[in-house]
Specification:
alpha/beta, TIM Barrel, eight-stranded parallel β-sheet, two-stranded antiparallel ribbon, 11 helices, globular
Length: 339
């Protein structure tokens, strides 16, 4: 049976628009979590998302090396006006070019490729996917500001960057969104970025708000994940950390059951409850999860339940870093001191 969302006027601001608080991260349809769905199934999921009331799709050039933008573009033919569309540039992970490149000329060239793949003449929100430490942030944002003035992008976003970087960027041009991982078990944004977003008028966009499936009761045995699943290389899912984390997950699942919601719905409500300037973009390749994630988006988590989640799952109780060291080195977001 489908889980349908209740009728609700509940909206949150993003780039001058009033959008549903839960959008759709499209990455899972192309990359990262095992075998990708067929193109037919991927397009069917995106169409179902629009039917359910999802009005914010988030993609990136990185996801499937253009596959995701291509898929989203095909799905939105004739439906482009129904969706606030976000994409990202800056990370190169195939062919001769690897690493991060946010030079002004690269930004412009990558945007043109994205417009072609997405079959659109504008992208509502365009992100720098990661900080390029070889280019002053002011130069990269200045190049993106030119694209805003030309009408090719509606607004500028940053991803996985620090509060200081956000403030410097915002002094050059308004920054509509900061996208960073955030869930009960990933709290780095609480160090400084959430407050900085509120300070400069930037919406915080939480990716992996159900902890890459861990807080959606979607992972019981990481060793059983499909070949190529990126979670297998993440410390929290490895054998030396997983048993302790699974014990936390089981207790979290019990809290959700007591509240009459699913674990995913509890995690999403916890994220949204941390500030009215926050939206979440859970990703999935399954329609049932798509329906589940949006079904309780107007549920407000009680303060006492938030406190219970905070006490159970936090920086001190979760075992392992969110990224392996090689990936962690590319992140500009503030981090906690090692225990």
């Amino acid at each position: 049976m489908s889980i349908l969302p209740p009728a609700s006027p509940f909206r949150r601001p993003l780039a001058g628009r009033a959008l549903a608080p839960i959008g759709l991260g499209c990455m899972s349809l192309s990359w990262a979590y095992g075998e990708r769905p067929s193109e037919e199934d991927g397009i069917a999921l995106l169409h179902r998302a629009i039917e359910l009331g999802y009005d914010h799709f988030d993609t990136a050039r990185l996801y499937g090396q253009g596959h995701n933008e291509t898929l989203v573009g095909r799905a939105l033919k004739g439906k482009r006006d129904k969706v606030f569309l976000a994409s990202k540039m800056g990370i190169f992970a195939s062919g001769e070019k690897r690493g991060i490149d946010c030079h002004p000329d690269t930004i412009r060239a990558e945007l043109e490729k994205s417009l072609t793949l997405l079959q659109t003449d504008h992208i509502d929100l365009y992100y720098m996917h990661r900080r390029d430490f070889t280019v002053p942030i002011e130069d990269s944002v200045g190049a993106m500001a030119d694209l805003v003035r030309e009408g090719k992008i509606g607004a500028i976003g940053l991803s996985e960057m620090s509060a200081d970087t956000l403030r410097r960027a915002a002094a050059t041009h308004p920054i509509a969104a900061m996208q960073t991982e955030y869930s009960p078990w990933t709290r780095q944004a609480e160090i400084a970025v959430l407050d900085a977003c509120r300070e400069v008028g930037t919406t915080f966009v939480a990716f992996s708000p159900v902890a890459r499936g861990a807080l959606a009761n979607g992972v019981r045995d990481p060793q059983a994940l499909e070949e190529g699943d990126i979670r297998k290389a993440m410390p929290r899912f490895m054998a030396d950390n997983w048993p302790r984390n699974l014990a936390l997950i089981d207790r979290f699942n019990a809290l959700a059951h007591e509240a009459g919601v699913t674990p995913a719905q509890l995690s999403l409500a916890w994220v949204l409850g941390k500030g009215e300037h926050i939206v979440a973009i859970p990703g999935t390749g399954k329609i049932a999860h798509l329906e589940e994630n949006i079904a309780r988006q107007d549920w407000t988590i009680p303060a006492d339940l938030t406190a219970q989640v905070d006490a159970l799952i936090n920086q001190q109780t979760v075992s392992g870093h969110r990224y392996a060291q090689t990936m962690h080195a590319t992140i500009d977001t503030e981090d906690f001191e090692p225990a």
